[in-house]
Amino acid sequence: MALADAAAAGGTQRSAAAPRLRPLRALLPYVAPYGRQIAVALSLLLLAAAATLTLPYAVKLLVDGGLVLPPGTDLGQRMLSIRDHFLLLFAVAVVLGLATAARYYMVSWIGERVTTDLRQAVYAHVLRQSPQFFETLKSGEVLSRLTTDTTVIHNAVGSSISMGLRNIVLFAGGLTMLVTTTPRLMLTVAGIIVLFVLPAGIIGRRVRKLSRASQDRIADTSGIAGEILNAISVVQSYTQENTEAARFSAANEKAFSTSIRRTGTRAAFTAFVIIGVFGSLLYGLYGGVQAVLAGEMSAGQLSQTALYVMVVAGSVAVLAEVWGELLRASGATERLMELLSLRSPIAEPAVALALPAPAGGLHVAFEQVRFAYPSRPAQPVLHGLDLRIEAGQTVALVGPSGAGKTTVFQLLQRFYDVSEGVIRIDGIDLRHVRLAELRARIAVVPQEAVIFSGSVADNIRYGRPEASDEEMRAAAAAAFVDEFVHRLPEGYATFVGERGVRLSGGQRQRIAIARAILKNAPLLLLDEATSSLDAESERVVQAALEAAMSGRTTIVIAHRLATVQRADRIIVLDHGRLIDAGTHLELVERGGLYARLAALQFAV
Questions:
Q1: For residue 574, what are the domain limits?
Q2: Is this model's pTM higher than 0.90 or not?
Q3: pLDDT tens per residue, range 469-484
């Protein structure tokens, strides 16, 4: 949350100096590609507004030309005149209905399209962030911005902006007609309305701040829910359901409280604007009635004035609602733009060097590497690590927890950059290689297998999506997946559930191994790859892994030393330093940390 708080603080500072709706300008690059659709929507909007503004004038013609006629006018002539005026009113209504429907469709299309593009841009941007990003921002917070915030923006782009523009036209057109027909009264009314602008602006600023705070509190609840639902078995094992429900409830109530404050302020803003403007217009209408009684205005003109007052008052009421929606969308846009403005510290090189085509494995070298995680800069994990691994070698990393073994894997994949020193692959600094090219040369089997929602085949093909069925099945057979897949209801097409919940731990691990084998990369990273397997499966899979290691460089993290006795070299790490290296027998004979670890696991 540190990153989120910092970003929020930056956003607050910017908003204090900027107009309240300025963040919405950030949406222009997503709206601009659809200029043709916007032009059509605006044309239809103007047509609908013009039809609405024509209706009061048509009513005036009906009253003065059809109802109020000189004495002695023939009844049949009067009925024909009334019919013609009603046909005119119906024609205006048809134009209004068709233009409004077409405008609604076009504006909704624009809103859906822009929101889809924005959601895709944010998601793609987040996927390219380094692990440092996810250390400081919960995944639930990101999901909230992708869902809740984009929904708010969709409502603004797909409805509120269109309604706002339409009612601005109606307000301006209606007020113009009122000033034209009853200039003295309506100029007075316009002056009164202006007096409401300043206090309305102050209330609107408060609405925007509360809108941003409300979105943040909703994101907090999403973050808690995402974290707990992903660890539901642990929560239930420790019978913490009530505790977590209470924690979520506290965050939820805080979100509710903030939302209610926003809603109350927005309601006060709406009431203030409607009462002020409507009262001013009624004052003008009252003056119109007096003018009719004094013979200064016709009944038709009074009807026209009354309808224009309704149009202007109605447009003000809608504009007050739209303003509140736009303020809320402004806060949501600010939050999304904060995500899009973040830049991963793991940047692509300005001038990329190509890795040579591997004839076999890769040569790996750590040269005086020092490293501390960005979230813990004062606690170095690696201290001047010097390590060289020849192409085609199998090297095991052993040592106690916290020795830096997993960090070596993360640095090799360039999830982080070293603080000092350099890491080279085939003699080239990792920082000078395109990330996609580097990671394409590496296959990883993590200690905790990651299984995606989909079928068994989908998960294996994640290593190489273009692989044929035969290649996929060969990798599955090498990882001993075919031993259990035939017992599944639909074989390789069986749906495994979210995070592979329908599979056992050993089955998930074997699928992860098959995925790495299918990728067929020259550098293989195994992080306790057989830790979830039973003794029989481990024996078979270990043999498969040894076959997969052939012809490529393999680095193995192992706590169970029995799995790495045949490694070409064993590297012993402790507190981020290389303290010993050699074969299993050499290290046992020398004594030291490795010998003590070996003595704890089996007789030597």
A1: 364-601
A2: no
A3: 899 998 888 888 888 8
